[in-house]
Amino acid sequence: MDLTFITGMYIPLVVTACLIIGCIMKKWISDVDNKWIPTICCAAGALLACTAQQKFSVDIIVAGAVSGLASTGLHYVVGPFETTLEGDLEELLDIVKQCCRICVEAGAPSVMSYVKISYKPDGVWTIDDKTGKYQNR
After folding, report:
1. Do the Cβ atoms of 17 and 43 come closer than 8 Å?
2. Residue 57 phi/psi, 5° resolution?
3. Per-residue pLDDT of the chain (137 residues; tens, 9 = 90+)
4. Of 91, 84, 79, 77, nearest to 116 (Cα)?
5. pTM of the model
6. Helix 37-53 vs helix 12-28: angle between axes, to the nearest 10 degrees?
7. Distance CA 37, CA 110 (A)
8. For 33, which of 21, 22, 26, 127 is 20 to 30 Å away at the CA?
C-alpha cells in the first residue's frame, strides 16, 4: 500500500512537541485524567501546526491534529473520508466526546460526529485484521 501521501501530514516538530506535552501530563500533572491526553495532544498539534506554518487552513489543522494524535501512540489510519482509531472502546468514545466539546469551546455553534464502532468484547479487532489481506504489500 502506498502511504506516501501521509508523509505530508506529519510535522516532526509538532509530533515531538506533542509527545513532550503528553509525557509531561502523564508523569507530572496528576489532575489530568489519562483519557484527556490524546485529545489534548490532538488539539495542541493543530494549534502548533498553525503557529509553525504561520497560517490557518484546514490542511494545516488536519496535519497538526494527525501529528498530535501520532504522539499518543494510538494506532490509527487516516483515509480519504475518515480516520480510523483502534483501541479500548471507552477510551475511544471519550476521545469522540472530547473532540465535540473542543469544537464547541472553539466557537462552533454545533457539531455532528459520525461514528462507526466495531466492538469485540474479548479484545480489539485490529485494523490489520479487517483490511490487511486487501492491502498491497
Report:
1. no
2. -150, 160
3. 454 544 455 567 777 777 788 778 877 887 777 777 777 887 888 888 777 777 777 777 777 777 776 666 677 777 777 778 888 888 888 878 877 777 777 677 888 888 888 888 887 778 788 777 777 65
4. 84
5. 0.53
6. 140
7. 23
8. 127
Enter the C-alpha cell of residue 56: 490557518
Angle between helices 12-28 and 58-70 (to 10 degrees): 50
Query: Rounded to whole angstroms, how far apart are CA atoms 100 and 22?
Result: 20
Classify residue 87 as exposed, middle or buried by CB count within 10 Å of its CB (0-12, 13-18, 19+).
middle
Instruction: Fill in the amino acid letter for 128.
Output: D
Q: Report the alpha-carbon distance of residue 76 to residue 70 in Å, rounded.
A: 8
- Residue reference for cell 516538530: 13
Helical segments of the chain, H only: 4-7, 12-28, 37-53, 58-70, 89-105, 127-131
C-alpha cell of 80? Answer: 480519504
Hey, what's the cell of 3? 502511504
Q: Which three cell numbers stand for residue 91?
A: 477510551
